[in-house]
Amino acid sequence: MRIIYIANIRIPTEMAHGLQVMKMCEAFVKNGADLELIVPRRFSISSLGKKEPFEYYRVERLFKVKKIFCFDLTPLNRFLGPVSSLIQALSFSFFVFIYLCFKRADIIYGRDRFDLFLISFFRPFVFEIHKIHKNLDINLAKRAKKNIVITNGIKDELARREVEKERILIASDGVDIDFFKVKETKEECRKILDLPIAKKIILYTGHLYKWKGVETLALSSKFLKSDTIIVIVGGIKWYLSNFKKFVEKNNLKNILILGHQDYSKIPYFLKAADCLILTGTEKSDVSKYQTSPMKMFEYMISARPIIASDLPSFREILNENNSILVKPDNPEALGEGIKKILNNPDLAKKISEQAYRDVQKYTWNNRAKKILDFLCAE
What are the tens digits of pLDDT across the range 4-38? Predict the structure, then answer.
């Protein structure tokens, strides 16, 4: 089966979707597909853009990455606003369409609405849906040959909007189990990362969008003892700046904000922690129903106790046996959940071991096989 995977993303990127796309391309090939990944040729806006994607994401060179010309005005975003991103997306879609006129493929696969919209008039395609933003997503889902979604919540919404259930497959995100095998001890990981040895470390990794609910974690510091420290790893420039201002405005203590880190360091950060935090918010449907965070699976494979917001999206994977679930948007409840783990080593060990067992089936290879079987079925 020949797959052309279209992704309007920078490679590498600080965003989680870059990792997800690269890992899935690798997994598709390992499951027998012949695959080409098409991405835009864009300006490097950070030092990350100069890194080699296969090395950065620790992905085998099993597929070709084809960079297509586009009018990349995103460096002028400060002056043009969202128009710059729109021009980039539309021009990439146009030149991808021209490129596809001369390429054979059994499956056109993508997760970007602009790319697939133009293609949808001429070629059959498969739509991988991570969030339902607008009616255009529903329209594309109805046109798609098949749809891949990451949560039951997305499938239910598509079905409610009259997309045939038979054309929808739920495939949660996954994890590279081998990548997260760390031989160093917790103390050794802290020394490598220059983290405090004596403190209890409460760790969050990932982005700092409002719908991620990370401000709740910051506020929970008011309910924790001085021997604890909340470590925040991740976040891109604008959101990182706003989060720092939030912490300063609320005079919050014992919070260490490290920003974006090289992905190769993430297994060490997880191993260095005493507990891991997965926040969300009831104020956002994306958070409640439409997210399958990769960090959730990374947390599980790290065998560290997880405290998570009790939301339907997280409950598709987590439960009371493999995590501590707390009321969303409630800093005190989150603080109590953290203290429950820190004060009960037996409970921490029990849920960590269960999470580790539960996550074994959520590999990228298993996800790719599930999707390919679905695509090949009549």
Answer: 999 999 889 888 899 999 999 999 999 999 999 99
DSSP 279: -
Q: Which two tokens stand for residue 363?
A: 């590999």
For the domain covering 2-174+363-376, report its CATH number: 3.40.50.2000
Enumerate the H helices of the chain as residue ranges.
Answer: 16-30, 53-56, 77-80, 82-100, 113-119, 135-143, 152-160, 186-193, 214-220, 237-249, 266-272, 285-289, 294-301, 312-315, 331-342, 345-358, 364-376
CATH topology match: 2-174+363-376 vs 178-360: yes
Domain covering 178-360 in this structure, CATH number: 3.40.50.2000
Cβ neighbours of residue 224 closer than 8 Å, sequence gap 6 or more: 202, 230, 254, 335, 338, 339
- Its pTM stands at 0.94
Name residues whose C-beta falls within 8 Å of residue 54's C-beta, 6 or more positions apart in sequence.
22, 60, 61
